[in-house]
Amino acid sequence: MGAESRRRMRDPDCTTAPDDGARHKGVPTARLARLAQGVGEAFAELLAVLAPVECVCCGSEDSALCGTCARRLRLLCTRPFRAEGQAPALLTENGAAILPVVAGAHYRDELAQALLSFKHLGQGRLASVLAPALGKAIRTAVGDGAGICLVPVPTTNAAFRRRGFSPVHLLLGRLGRVGALPGLHVADALKKAPGPGRGQKGLGRGERERRVRGSMTVRLLRKRSLQGKACVIVDDVLTTGATLAEAARAVTAAGGVVCGAVVLAATRPPAAAESPAHGPVTPGPR
Ligand SMILES: [Zn+2]
To answer: Which among 35, 53, 247, 250 has the fewest CB atoms less than 10 Å away?
Structure first.
């Protein structure tokens, strides 16, 4: 990945919705974004096919993600790992994990750039590479477990209005359509609770966790569907873990039995950035 790509990458640790002006190569971004909003994945895929695009990672004229970068991205996602140990909001004061989390990969390089671009435009080529990576992480987490509810973390209302889609819901929907989630049930049960602006950008850990607490709730009509059910929370990026902890709290409050969480990518805290790679995945939350 070139220096330009790295420069354009944003650290999601600073924001839950890293959409503060990242640009995309090769597509008339503003017009395309307006067009793509609210029309769903199918139309976004059509646009990606029709519009002359460059790879969001290396800029080569190919598709939204060239073959080389797609291969690199897949390589980054070959070994899902347990990631709760690097999320301070998911640890007690004694360092014990309160929620096991399986991450598909570290948030870096081609994966970071592709995920960021996907969140802006939902480009079909990106979804087709990102969805299997999420599916692999989910399968690692649940093993052969069946009857488990996958509960996606809701996007903020503002982000949804801006993008016209929720990245996690779109990826899960894609996995469901291709039969990649056998025995699992996607329960779109969480929603953002009404409240003041919940932006977390630039906030310290304590303030960030206070803002997130109470920010989600289970939809009234979905409460019964969760009661007594084994649930796994699903999100795109793990940062401090405050969002997953809040989602788990809301699902538990509605009677769901939260076994763990799955994320597509986990950021590494600065102190751990140079630590050795994680070992093999231990058995998932179930
Ligand atoms: Zn490329």
So the answer is: 35
